[in-house]
Write a structure and sequence with these properties.
about 160 residues; mainly alpha; 2 domains; disordered N terminus
Length: about 160
């Protein structure tokens, strides 16, 4: 898969549609992409900025996956969005999150490794995931985690073939 280069927002610039990833034209970063060791964080940043710019399409900020990050870091979606609204870039947002969470690097590494294999344990969520994968492409028996599903869904949503 080719490496994608996503624009990041720089501190001191006003948040505008030019600074946000237009999620009507391409997906947010994969939940696997890390910033400061945190999975999910770059994706949440893309969705937050797109939401503020009105370019989030079907991508929802502060959804259950976003809340996995927020719960681990000890922040709320509202506080996170308020900080994004200041125009903070990726690095500034990482610094802010680190100051709020005070997690050690080994804790972040363990949490991120866990999220990469994350599948909800409740029957309803597992059945939903299996159903969604079956609807996309029943041959895709390699899709075993939420991150796998999101990557496939993003790919198919923007014209990719299963």
């Amino acid at each position: 898969m080719p490496i994608r280069h996503y624009p990041t927002h720089r501190a001191g610039h006003t948040l505008s549609p030019m600074n946000a990833v237009n999620l009507t034209q391409r997906p947010p970063r994969s939940p696997r992409v890390r910033l400061g060791g945190y999975t999910i964080l770059p994706r949440v940043l893309d969705k937050a900025r797109a939401t503020l710019a009105g370019m989030n399409s079907d991508y929802r900020f502060n959804n259950p996956l976003d809340n996995v990050l927020f719960a681990f870091a000890g922040v709320t979606g509202d506080a996170f969005l308020a900080q994004v609204r200041t125009g903070a870039g990726d690095f500034e947002m990482l610094q802010w999150l680190q100051a709020q969470s005070k997690k050690a690097p080994h804790e972040i590494a363990a949490w991120s490794a866990w999220t990469e294999t994350f599948v909800e344990n409740d029957t309803e969520t597992r059945e939903w995931l299996v159903g969604r994968i079956q609807a996309m492409d029943a041959r895709r028996t390699d899709i075993g985690s939420l991150f796998d599903y999101l990557d496939l869904d993003d790919y198919l949503s923007f014209g990719g073939q299963a």
